[in-house]
């Protein structure tokens, strides 16, 4: 005859939470192992950049600041040597410049200052993307004729981060980038 150990009902939610936490730790560990062999487009770098852009589109300085902090973490911890198809690692100066621009965005609550550094961040990220052969994901370079600045977008629809809601559709697609 088999004997089963039973646990009091009030312990079950605690056990479920512990198991769920262990599962998340295991999954994130597996993702970080897989990240060693991924491209920039599947890393948090572009995701964080697009989150900054979206915050500026929505004229939300607090969100742009928080997303810039995420971008700094993503770009600082990314191993560019692991990029598929990269002949040589991108210039470390591009990485430093992006960190500096994102730091300025993170440390400001002024949308005009954030947008100024976003323009520089966008140009530097564009240079990085052009220097490294990446996956087949498609991105778009956009241009704002009023600010005479570029930005990158994950979609072909113009949503202007330099003017936000005031001139949301001001701009045009200048290039389709296949990574």
Report on the structure:
With 179 residues, the chain is mostly helical. The chain has one domain. The protein contains 5 helices and 3 strands, in the order αααααβββ. The protein has helices spanning 12-35, 44-57, 61-77, 92-106, 111-131, and strands at 138-144, 149-153, 172-178. The chain has a 3-stranded antiparallel β-sheet with strand order 2-1-3. Helix 2 (44-57) runs antiparallel to helix 3 and helix 3 packs antiparallel against helix 4 (92-106). The longest helix has 24 residues, at 12-35. Residues 14-41 have low confidence and may be disordered.
Give the gist of this structure.
By secondary structure, the chain is mainly alpha-helical. Helix content is about 50%, strand content about 10%. It has helices at about 10-35, 45-55, 60-75, 90-105, 110-130, and strands spanning about 140-145, 150-155, 170-179.
Distance between the terminal alpha carbons, to the nearest Å? Answer: 63 Å
Number of helices: 5
State the shape: globular
Count of individual beta strands: 3
Provide the domain count: 1
Mean pLDDT: 78
The computed structural class is mainly alpha
The radius of gyration over CA amounts to 21 Å
Q: Proportion of β residues? A: 5-15%
Largest beta sheet: strand ordering? 2-1-3
Oligomer: single chain
Which features characterize this protein?
single chain; 179 residues; mainly alpha; 3-stranded antiparallel beta sheet; 5 helices; 51% helix; globular
Topology:
Layout: H1 12-35, H2 44-57, H3 61-77, H4 92-106, H5 111-131, E1 138-144, E2 149-153, E3 172-178
Antiparallel strand pairs: 1-2, 1-3
Helix pairs in contact: 2-3, 2-5, 3-4, 4-5
């Amino acid at each position: 005859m088999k004997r089963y150990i039973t646990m009091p009902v009030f312990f079950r939610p605690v056990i479920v939470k512990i198991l769920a936490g262990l599962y998340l730790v295991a999954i994130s560990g597996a993702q970080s192992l897989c990240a060693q062999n991924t491209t920039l487009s599947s890393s948090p770098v572009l995701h964080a950049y697009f989150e900054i852009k979206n915050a500026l589109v929505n004229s939300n300085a607090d969100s742009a600041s928080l997303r810039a902090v995420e971008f700094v973490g993503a770009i600082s911890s990314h191993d560019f040597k692991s990029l598929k198809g990269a002949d040589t690692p991108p210039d470390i100066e591009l990485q430093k410049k992006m960190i500096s621009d994102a730091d300025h965005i993170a440390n400001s609550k002024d949308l005009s200052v954030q947008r100024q550094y976003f323009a520089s961040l966008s140009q530097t990220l564009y240079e990085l993307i052009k220097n490294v052969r990446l996956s087949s994901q498609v991105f778009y370079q956009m241009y704002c004729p009023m600010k005479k600045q570029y930005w990158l977008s994950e979609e072909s629809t113009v949503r202007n981060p330099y003017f936000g809601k005031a001139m949301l559709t001001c701009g045009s697609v200048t290039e389709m980038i296949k990574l």
